[in-house]
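WARN retry 2 of 3 for item q-0093 after timeout on previous attempt; input resubmitted unchanged.
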Amino acid sequence: MVIVKIVELVGVSSTSWQNAVENAIKEASQTIRNLTGVHVKSYTGKVKDSTIVEYRANVKVSFIVER
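OK item q-0093 returned
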């Protein structure tokens, strides 16, 4: 039987929401093995002087638990 665990993360980027998602996955892969999927829950951002200066992606990543 396979056990899958899900953790929630916030990825951040100064360029795009897609890059924020990719940054979350890249960072998670540094400490989590067997990543199998990502679910983007929402996008948020920080605005300064009418311009988006920080993109944030709230994601859930799933991975297989090793026994």
